[in-house]
Amino acid sequence: MKGGRQTDFAYQAVYRYLTHLISEVGTEARVKLPSLRHLAERLNVSISTIQYA
C-alpha cells in the first residue's frame, strides 16, 4: 500500500485508501467502489481486513 505509514495497521491504510477513492469522485458523479476481492488483491490484504476497514 503506497503512502501508508509503517506503524499503521492494515485496516487503517485500507480505510485511508477508501476515503481517498470516495473523495476523488466528488458529489456529482455516481461511481461504484471496487469489490472486496479486488480491493484485497490490489492492497495485498485479506478480505476480512477490507470488511473491518
From TrEMBL:
Q: Which GO terms describe its molecular function?
A: DNA binding; DNA-binding transcription factor activity
Identify the stretch annotated as signal peptide in this record: none
Domain (HTH gntR-type) ranges: 11-53
Q: Which UniProt keywords apply?
A: DNA-binding, Transcription, Transcription regulation
Record protein name field: HTH gntR-type domain-containing protein
Which species does the entry assign this protein to? Pseudomonas fluorescens
